[in-house]
Amino acid sequence: MSDDARLDGLVSGLPGAREWWADHGLLVNGTPERVWGLLDSGDGPRARLAAAVYRASARVHWDAGPGARRQILALDAARYGDRELAARITAIPVKGVPDTQWGVDWAAGAEVDARFRDAMPGHVGLVCAVATGVVDGRCVAVTGSVDRTVRVWDLTTGQQVGKPLTGHTDTVWAVATGVVDGRCVAVTGSVDRTVRVWDLTTGQQVGKPLTGHTDTVWAVATGVVDGRCVAVTGSGDETVRVWDLTTGQQVGKPLTGHTSSAWAVATEMVNDRPVTITGGIDGTVRVWDLTTGKPVGQPLTGHDAGVLAVATRVVDGRPVAVTGSSDLTVRVWDLANGKQIGPPLQGHTDWVRTVATGAVDDRPVAVTGSYDKTLRLWDLTTHEPVGKELVFPEPINAASMAGQLVVGFGQEVATMSPLT
Fold this sequence. Notes:
By secondary structure, this protein is mainly beta. It folds into two domains: 3-100, no CATH class; 127-418, Methylamine Dehydrogenase, Chain H, CATH 2.130.10. The protein has helices at residues 3-7, 24-29, 32-36, 45-56, 58-61, 66-79, 83-90; strands at 102-107, 127-135, 138-145, 150-154, 172-180, 183-190, 195-199, 204-205, 217-225, 228-235, 239-244, 255-256, 262-270, 273-280, 285-289, 307-315, 318-325, 330-334, 339-340, 352-360, 363-370, 374-379, 390-391, 396-402, 404-409, 412-418.
């Protein structure tokens, strides 16, 4: 059978052709009109699964090219619990399109047809936050959701670890991880205005909720100040607060300066001093000395709308902050001198909701997720895109990077790894 026949979507009409559901090249390269017309024609579990996978993101397939369709089909196969099918789809060649750089490791199937028992359950509300950590030697992801729960996922197997962590009475909007007295903890912030700390080994809440904010806790980060692990939280009450995670007490006075919600928080070391970087709906980025509680320099300005996400990284020996905004841009800042580095990184067509940093082939990169349903990688040395954007069937609210990409989209969680 020729490649041209596959590309034209005619495979099912050729003498001796395989069943359409076994022809993954047809699913990827065939026109949606052609494939859609075949979905009800098969019988047996393989045909039903292939049809369900194709239908899962059918509204995306009609407007996507074969390259994007290949990636989404692989993701949906993993959502249905068939990682082998996901791998086979990923390997399908697409004329004029580079091979896929990222393979799907696993995906929770919270929104897929429950009759497919291999699909893993998950959150029953939007996933708002993702963080990663190490618990008893295994890498985990911690997610927070509109369903008011916090869930822990084994990054290797994709299985949930223990029961959901419950206690928040409203949306869990922010998650960070840290190490306190040798144990890995998660710190979560919620619309219920509280901050909670969880022992990820036992799955139990540590102490009482941390209270003081008078509005939604939109952001959480962890850091170390004078040898003690702290959490830094940003809130709709326009303040940033620092908490000692050993004692559960607030450290010093609230950090004030933002004139609207403090929506994003990260930590870093600058000139051998611990700092926190905060982004506000007022469009500013601010840097604070965590030892003194004082501002460092002037606010960093340039965004034309709210700053929704911030992450940090050391690039060529200098600490930088990467910010995402509802002005659709991503910006990189030199934290030593407070200057923007280069022009804005552009490409997203909707709010940039999440930013993470990591490394690909030893290159420092930023990962940005948007309500435009794409995830983009940027080389922080050259400020150029790294490969093609990754397309998802739902808006992206959360992402993290620890070797793997961990992505929260809609009610789902998925992980992806670079293909060598």
